[in-house]
């Protein structure tokens, strides 16, 4: 399918621009630069440029391109920014953030997925990223604070640790809701005030951890 890939990627970017309404050209360029087929299992290559989440093993999914684009746009990444992603999964969102940011830190709960993501990013020559296996509901204290944080899994509420790990003016983009449906929240830090706006409905796999869901069951 190699001959068709550049064309399919261009069509996806045009769809994100005209149908989904992504305005930030830097975000569209970043998506245009990342081969999404590298991040899906070989059997799903034909669907790599369709706007759907796809299975990546371990019961997890690679987010659909329009959601990756929207979250990246909401995170308003500057080229000097240090960014944190919670839920690295396949590594696709990390690969989209890497050309936009100074450095991307990412956390993944499942070591098998973290290893796969590291391998793909190495294969693509992406060097300004680091992926650690840990509970991302607690953030990554040793590397904090961050200019932007993207959470790629559904949270019952905004974890406190993540808000605390934002710089002044830092952006946190996170799906908050129950296990079937969430709203995309954008939280901006203004001193000790956190401005929270809502940006449409999404569906993610659960954020499992201390400030998340306990194996798919809401924590108190
Ligand atoms: N951004 C990924 C999407 C992965 S799906 C991509 O582009 O492919 C969400 C991921 O969040 C899953 O891999 C899941 O294992 C991970 N996850 C869930 N809870 C987590 C937690 N507390 N800390 C870190 N990762 C978590």
Molecular structure report:
By secondary structure, the chain is an alpha/beta fold. The chain has one domain (53-218): Rossmann fold, CATH 3.40.50. The chain contains 6 helices and 9 strands. The chain has helices spanning 5-20, 25-33, 65-75, 92-97, 111-123, 160-164; strands at residues 54-57, 60-62, 82-86, 103-108, 129-133, 146-151, 166-177, 182-190, 193-202. A 7-stranded mixed beta sheet has the order 5-4-3-6-7-8-9. It has a two-stranded antiparallel ribbon with strand order 1-2. Helix 1 runs antiparallel to helix 2. The longest helix has 16 residues, at 5-20. The N and C termini lie far apart (48 Å). The mean pLDDT is 95. It binds S-adenosyl-L-homocysteine.
State the fourth-level CATH superfamily: Vaccinia Virus protein VP39
Q: Describe the global form.
A: globular
**Element string (H = helix, E = strand):** HHEEHEHEHEEHEEE
Strands of the largest sheet, in order across it? Answer: 5-4-3-6-7-8-9
- Low-confidence segments: none
Strand content: 25-35%
- Radius of gyration over alpha carbons? 16 Å
Distance between the termini: 48 Å
What fold name goes in the CATH topology slot? Rossmann fold
CATH class: Alpha Beta
Please describe the biggest sheet, giving its number of strands, its sense, and whether it closes into a barrel: 7 strands, mixed
Q: Write down the overall mean pLDDT.
A: 95
The total of beta strands comes to: 9
CATH architecture: 3-Layer(aba) Sandwich
Helical coverage, percent range: 25-40%
Instruction: Tell me which ligands are bound.
Output: S-adenosyl-L-homocysteine
């Amino acid at each position: 399918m190699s001959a068709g890939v550049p064309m399919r990627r261009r069509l996806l970017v045009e769809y994100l621009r005209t149908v989904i309404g992504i305005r930030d050209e830097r975000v569209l360029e970043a998506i245009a630069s990342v081969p999404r087929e590298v991040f899906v299992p070989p059997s799903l290559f034909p669907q790599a440029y369709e706007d759907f989440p796809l299975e990546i093993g371990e019961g997890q999914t690679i987010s659909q391109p329009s959601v990756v684009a929207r979250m990246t746009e909401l995170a308003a990444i500057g080229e000097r920014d240090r960014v944190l992603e919670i839920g690295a999964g396949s590594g696709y969102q990390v690969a989209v953030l890497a050309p936009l940011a100074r450095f991307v830190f990412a956390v993944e709960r499942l070591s098998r997925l973290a290893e796969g993501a590291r391998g793909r990013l190495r294969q693509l020559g992406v060097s300004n990223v680091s992926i650690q296996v840990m509970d991302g509901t607690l953030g990554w204290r040793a590397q904090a604070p961050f200019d932007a944080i993207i959470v790629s899994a559904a949270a019952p509420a905004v974890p406190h640790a993540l808000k605390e790990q934002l710089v002044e003016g830092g952006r946190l983009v996170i799906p908050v809701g129950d296990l079937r449906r969430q709203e995309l929240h954008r939280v901006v830090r203004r001193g000790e005030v956190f401005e929270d706006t809502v940006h449409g409905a999404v569906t993610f796999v659960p954020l499992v951890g201390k400030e998340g869901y306990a194996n798919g069951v809401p924590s108190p």
